[in-house]
Amino acid sequence: LNVDSWIFVADDEPIGGLLNLARELGGRVTVAVVGPRARADAVAAAGPDRVLWHPTTVSTPPEAFAGQVAAQVKQAAPGVLLSSDAASARVLLGAAAAGLGAAVIGSVRAIAVEGENLVVSRPAVEGKVIETLGASGALACIFDGENVPVAAAQPTAVEEVPTEDLGDALLVVETIPAAGGSAGLRLAARVVAAGLGIRTRSDLALVEDLAAAVHAEVACTLPVCDDMRWYDSNHVVGRTHNQIAPDLYIAVGISGQPQHMVGVRDAKVVVAINNDPNALIFKTCDYAILGDLYKVVPALTAALQ
Amino acid sequence: MNRMKAVVVFKWLRNPEDARVGSDGSVDWRAAKMAVSDDDPAAVVVANAIAAVGGECVGLTLGDGDASWAAARGASSTVVVTDAEPSANSAATAAILAAGVRSIGGVDVVLIGDTAWDRGVPVALAGLLGWAALADVESAAVEGDRLRVTRKFGDGSQVVDVVRPVVLAVVASRAEQHAPGMKEILAARKKPVTRITMDELGVEHDTTVTSRGTQFPATTAARVIDGADPVAAAAQLLAALRSDGVL
Question: Which residues of chain A have pLDDT under 70?
């Protein structure tokens, strides 16, 4: 069974989880990095077997390299292709998988070798269950597991790949930085978030007072922004908005929909305050206070002051 | 020439919210219908914006459900692959869609919801068509012979000038804003629908990925503190957080 793997990297998220997954297969691990040199160096520091660097210019988006990367993959013929869930890396994976005739599986947490097959596990049915899948032949996986820290004694040598003529199929016109406001949330060590368990806009003061007492940033779920319009989208935590990694995340009146919980997967400790014993969040949090948030939150704030 | 033919892919997955999970962790998908994902309405909005410049919007869907969803939102016709089933192998689902796109012919841009239900299909579809692709797309506009696409990029966004043909995986930033009324829904049922089978498209059923079953995740149970006495509960929680070193 061919367990040599290629990992596609087109952003600056840590690759420890991906690299760990690839290494456990036991094959040779090649990482194709599209972007600035610093990105390639960061990947090289984690110590994969090979780092192939495709330098970009301001006018070329990473996806412009999909054809060139796919051609290299076809030539190398690895058995496993891996990327994160990020948009650009996924496009590279899709192109390479098609070139190789590989099967594609999303939301992958783990891969194991079983005889001549690869066995993959992933959450299914909105995270309610874990599904085990068997795959024959080349396999491309979109990784959805946790990051793990990796470090190598010695960095891998970065090999620069000469850029072929990419044509003008994809040209960057403009890159617009974030409107501001979410940077504080992304870097915060502590975050207190409001969900639809909060009954009125004025009751947000409960959440904000708790945040002030524990020196935390305030966040919210998507419906609190989109449906209630109580906070702007910079405050939203979830798959489509901010994915954060605070030491402490206190979820107030949040049921724990998968879309939201993906955003706090890298939080160290998650506390949920909810009066519904069947709330989904109780399955994934570390501590739960089962009770009325209108009584528990003021008590918590008072105890902190 | 800036008249573009846009294909919007919709209802290409079963709704996981309708699947029944048994007490042993097994899943029964029989009650789960082919469904519109949260991102399908955003994809049709982008398709309409492109087709509005003298172009055309065609719907493409899988399975035996109501095929008029896209037609009620502006598509002039719809192609249905009637016997197609979404596969555990995203590349197999994408192969059916790619064959559908090829059967429509002369397509400039494919719009598909970049749904959390299956993150692999949009990019596998682009790979199989051999077309350029962008994911996390928010909007697109016709700009002469090309498309000007805005997509999420890091914490901000990026505008990319794109040549045709291209696959754009669209993400919704909010719920559907302009749902069609009864008039549009009734008119949609009179628009042309082409029904086609996997056999006619020359696509074989895929068996490279097979489900070996499902089970409940091994969760480390949360430590549940009874909030009936809020003051005691607060003290208990703070003590635990301090011993964990996060306070």
Answer: 179-182
User: How many cross-chain Cβ pairs, A to B, lie less than 8 Å apart?
Assistant: 265
Measured in angstroms, the CA of B105 and the nearest CA of chain A are apart by 20
For the segment B29-48, the average pLDDT, to the nearest whole number, is 94
Please tell me which residue of chain B has the smallest CA distance to A269.
B246
Q: Is B151 on the interface with A (CB under 8 A)?
A: yes
Report the pLDDT value the prediction gives residue A241, as an integer from 0 to 100: 83
Residue A248 and residue A210 in contact, taking contact as beta carbons nearer than 8 Å? no
ipTM, interface predicted TM-score of the complex: 0.92
Write a three-state SS string for chain B: CCCCEEEEEECCEECHHHCEECCCCCEECCCCCEECCCCHHHHHHHHHHHHCCCCEEEEEEECCCCCCCCHHHCCCEEEEECCCCCCCCHHHHHHHHHHHHHHHCCCCEEEEECCCCCCCHHHHHHHHHCCEEEEEEEEEEEECCEEEEEEEECCEEEEEEECCCEEEEECCCCCCCCCCCHHHHHHHCCCCEEEECHHHHCCCCCCCEEEEEEECCCCCCCEEEECCCHHHHHHHHHHHHHHCCCC
Distance CA B5, CA B24 (A): 48
Non-local (6+) Cβ contacts of A238 within 8 A are A221, A222, A259, A260, A262, A263
Given an 8 Å threshold on Cβ–Cβ distance, is A130 in contact with B215?
yes
Reading the block at residue B237, the tokens are 């929680």
| Residue B2 pLDDT grade (very low, low, confident, very high; cuts 50, 70, 90) | low
Mutation pick from B209, B216, B238 vs chain A, by most beta carbons of A within 10 Å, is B209
Taking the CA of residue B221 and the nearest CA in chain A, the distance in Å comes to: 7
Mean pLDDT, chain B, integer: 94
Cβ atoms < 10 Å from Cβ of A247: 17
Instruction: Please identify which residue in the block is written with the tokens 């850029």.
Output: A163
**AA identity, residue B247:** L
Task: List the one residue out of B160, B94, B84 whose CA is nearest residue B130.
Answer: B94
Contacting residues of A for B119, CB less than 8 Å apart: 85, 90, 106-107, 142, 144
Note whether A178 contacts B156, CB cutoff 8 Å: yes
Q: Which of B17, B49, B48 is nearest to B33 (CA)?
A: B17
Q: Does A96 sit within 8 Å of B159, measured CB to CB?
A: no
List strands edge to edge, sheet with A248-252: A217-220, A190-194, A248-252, A269-274, A287-290, B223-226
Residue B143 has pLDDT above 90, yes or no: yes
